[in-house]
Amino acid sequence: MGRILKIVEYSIIIFERTTQLSKLHSRERMRPTLYRLLLSLLLTLSLLEPAAAQSTLRAPDGGQESVGVFSDGHTLVVFAHQDDDVLWMLAFWPVASKFLLAAYPAAPVFQDLVQSFPAELNYRVRWTPIWGSVDNDIWAEVFTDFCKRAPIVNLATIRAHLRPYFAPPIKRVITHNNWGEYGHVQHRLVNIAVRELAVETGLDVWAPGTRVLRDAGGQSRQVHVASELGLPTIEGYFDPKIFRSVREVYQAHRPVASTPELTATFLNWSSTLWTGSHRPEDDRIGWRPFVKLVDRGVDLTAENPAVRRLERDVMVVNDCPTNPALPSP
Q: Is 276's pLDDT higher than 50?
């Protein structure tokens, strides 16, 4: 309601200023009409406000105390790859102060992508590629190759690039879970770097309370594991309309480089900038659990046997076989 009153207040101010050059009797004749219109606007918006203010976060028990803090504007979303924040963290888009792309540099193809997102999502101004940017050719040649990128993108370098952002007023971080959702090595590296920095700086860390299983045909499905972990849990809503609209933008962008050979390398990595499922009804929409990994600098997963079991059971994928980026346990 406070936001609505501000709209009305500013509308009145604008009216007063724009009529200063009008004759006094004309302004007085218009004033009652304007006030009636503004009153109608106020009443209409007051009816719409509850729906507009519905949160994408909720507590499993129905209480809102544990999720109310997310509205303070002090939340980072830290993700490995450019579509990961959609795939795993979309519920936190409304409350994120920054989106930190953490496991590779940006490139012009990605910059063009984020500029194409719907303006109402306010994504571009919050998007922060912490590695800076390289050209499309370098990205295709180096960052699509598991072994070429391994000496560049590792735990030490990810942690160093993230460190400047772990400072006041930031209070919490949303990131990948310890097992990397489906085991991606760079998801795991980002998770470790985030947890270590959160312990140093006294922050909270939340991550998806899910893992990905694949059937014999290669189809993947998400399994909720939050209840097995004994960790604080909230739920986040992945809005189908937003998810699909953003996915369409990704699917419309094809990676390209300056030569046919490098473009082929790019396309071998992915035919579009969307690397998730192309199924019309993706299982990532709806309410999904998130678990608290670090509580004000205390790593809740350090001695958690259920988390350790998942870290062992979920196979690491996409690492360099001859020079692994993930440190040995």
A: yes
At 122-169, the pLDDT tens digits run 999 999 999 999 999 999 999 999 999 999 999 999 999 999 999 999
CA Rg value for the chain? 23
DSSP 287: E
Closest by CA position to 236, among listed 250, 224, 228? 224
280: cis peptide before it, omega within 30°?
A: no
Amino acid residing at 98: K
Say if CB 251 and CB 271 are below 8 A apart: no
Q: Where are the domains of the chain?
A: 2-52, 57-313
The enclosing H or E element of 99 equals strand 96-101
Tell me how far apart the alpha carbons of residues 180 and 313 are, in angstroms, rounded to a whole number.
11
Distance of CA 316 to the CA centre of its chain: 22
Which residues in 157-270 belong to E strands, given as ranges?
A: 172-174, 204-208, 210-214, 220-224, 233-238
* Whole-angstrom distance, CA of residue 226 vs CA of residue 230: 7
> Pick from 72, 124, 76: which is nearest to 96 by CA?
76
Alpha-carbon torsion, ordered 183, 185, 191, 193, to 10 deg: 160
Question: How far apart are the C-alpha atoms of 156 and 159, rounded to whole Å?
Answer: 5
Residue 195 sits at the vertex; the CA angle it makes with 327 and 290, to the nearest 5 degrees, is 115
Contact indicator for 28, 16 with CB cutoff of 8 Å: no
Stretch 320-325: mean pLDDT: 95
Phi-psi group of 268: left, alpha or beta (phi > 0 → left; psi -120 to 50 → alpha; rest → beta): alpha
303-315 per-position pLDDT tens digit: 999 999 999 999 9
Global pTM reads 0.83
